[in-house]
Design goal:
Protein name: RNA polymerase sigma factor
Oligomer: single chain
CATH architecture of the largest domain: Orthogonal Bundle
Organism: Lysobacter korlensis
Number of domains: 2
Keywords: DNA-binding, Sigma factor, Transcription, Transcription regulation
Shape: globular
CATH superfamily of the largest domain: RNA polymerase sigma factor, region 2, helix turn helix motif
Family: Belongs to the sigma-70 factor family. ECF subfamily.
Structural class: mainly alpha
Pfam families: Sigma70_r2, Sigma70_r4_2
Helix content: over 70%
Number of helices: 9
Number of strands: 0
Distance between the termini: 40 Å
Order of helices and strands: HHHHHHHHH
């Protein structure tokens, strides 16, 4: 947190290089959050730019109550959702409750070509299933499982309580299991 505090202090003092460093350090997270929600690289690029413009304008309001990346992530998340709401006229944020979990098997020896192909296909199916989730669920599962972000940071970014994040993760795993068990029936299910 002291690195965040030093960086913020430098930016607020007018250090242009410090702001460039802030953007470089946090752009990848911003991009991942935004592009997963809006799914359009061109719009995602614009929203990321808007995110950092807002960060620059609002940095004096940053209170160091959470990590800087969490604060920036929250801004990116909010802007992406607003964009999606304008584009679609509303956003479905919750999915159908289910139970179960999804585990990814990791081979303990070098895979052969058939195993490599099967693994690539399973990986692609999993990512298609994740992409079929509503925006909030898609964001939560990727931030938690792919970006390995703590639940408390996800809660700060999304504005959803930690208990609800845990509940969403449980339901998302069940939904993904259902989608992967029978992709012909569940892959395009909007619920």
């Amino acid at each position: 947190m002291s690195a965040d505090r030093d960086l913020v202090t430098a930016v607020l003092a007018g250090d242009v290089a410090a702001f460039e460093r802030l953007v470089v350090e946090h752009h990848a997270l911003c991009w991942r959050i935004v592009v997963r929600i809006v799914r359009d690289p061109e719009h995602a690029h614009d929203i990321c730019q808007e995110t950092f413009l807002r960060v620059h304008r609002s940095l004096s309001q940053y209170r160091h109550e959470s990590a800087l990346r969490t604060w920036i992530g929250r801004i990116a998340y909010s802007l992406a959702l607003r964009h999606l709401e304008r584009q679609r006229g509303g956003v479905q944020l919750v999915g159908a409750p289910d139970a179960g979990e999804v585990f990814e098997a990791v081979p303990d020896s070098a895979p052969g070509p058939h195993e490599t192909l099967a693994s690539a296909q399973a990986h692609a199916r999993l990512h298609r299933a994740i992409d079929a989730l509503p925006p909030l669920q898609r964001s939560i599962v990727r931030l938690y499982h792919i970006d390995e972000m703590p639940i408390s940071d996800i809660a700060d970014i999304t504005g959803v309580p930690t208990g609800t994040i845990k509940s969403h993760l449980f339901r998302i795993r069940a939904r993904l299991r259902g989608m992967l068990d029978d992709p012909s029936e569940r892959m395009h299910d909007p619920a």
